[in-house]
Amino acid sequence: MPINERYTRHELLSVIGKKGQEQLAENRVLIVGCGALGTTIANNLVRSGVGLVRIADRDIVELSNLQRQMLFDENDIGSPKAIAAACKLEKINSSVIIEPVVDDINYRNIEDLIKTMDVVADGTDNMLIRFLINDACVKHAIPWVYGGAIETYGMTFNIIPSRTPCFKCFIPDVPEPGALPTCDTVGVLTTIPAIIGSLQSTEVLKILLRKKDVNKNLITYDVWNHSFESIQIKKNPNCECCGKHYFEFLNGKLKEDIISLCEKGAIQISPVKKTVVSFDELEKKLRHVGEVENRKVILRCKIQNYELNIFQNGRAIIMGTNDKNLAKSLYAKYIGF
Fold this sequence. Notes:
Elements: H1 3-6, H2 8-11, H3 17-24, E1 28-32, H4 36-48, E2 52-57, H5 81-92, E3 97-102, H6 110-114, E4 119-122, H7 127-140, E5 144-150, E6 153-159, H8 167-170, H9 183-186, H10 191-208, E7 218-222, E8 227-231, E9 257-261, E10 266-270, H11 279-286, E11 291-294, E12 298-303, E13 306-311, E14 316-319, H12 324-334
Parallel strand pairs: 1-2, 1-4, 2-3, 4-5
Antiparallel strand pairs: 5-6, 6-7, 7-8, 9-10, 10-14, 11-12, 12-13, 13-14
Helix pairs in contact: 4-10
């Protein structure tokens, strides 16, 4: 198909047109996380003709991902998500440069990943990484689009440095371990990540095209109840990040402590925020996914080939692996950062 025919439907749109389509081809977007949101965003942006799409993800494709992560099929199980996604996307649009990055996003590498980007899109399910993205994007004045989806609802919010509140204005502190539900403990409907990811994709395109009608509110939507809200988030003039430009996550002062216990075949993770975990609440969540034993001072959960030993201060020893990235993924899935 000739390249000038590919984007005909975009070029007919008054909000994009031929000039806008040409502009998209000059832009670069980083997608952090290649799960349900990330695959939706990547699919939309590549089909839309964004010039370069970089996809960063540390995980591999699992069978349970196929229910909602649109770029993967059964043949991809066991492959790195970023690589599997790139292979599909290159077949969808060979004129777009796809850069897969199979790595753990942290304070050491995030600035290198974002520094040549025009927009960053949030496809992660990890709150700590979102605070890190926020620090890096505010520091380098790069817009980013937050998104989250769980159960039947989701939300999205644009952070445009110097023009909007930042993520830390919206959520001032890292939630306590176990305080937030995760897709692996309460589930997620197939359709809601596709909806939220599409809203994020649209906002990314607006930002790239420098449109004046970029959304400035937090958008929430429950697909099951069809409830929609647009909520104004106020900028905090005393915000440590966008107000005072103190980047505690980017500076590495707030990070999880990970230790390999080689002799035990285990990884110990101590979270950023020390707290008292509610074993009763966490036990209710984990009973849906594995065998749980509450010993009052330690909560033990056996999930497939792994055993999570969780202490009341949020520290966990994850048995059955010496892979730190895998241990972090298990912690994020079942306990939550």
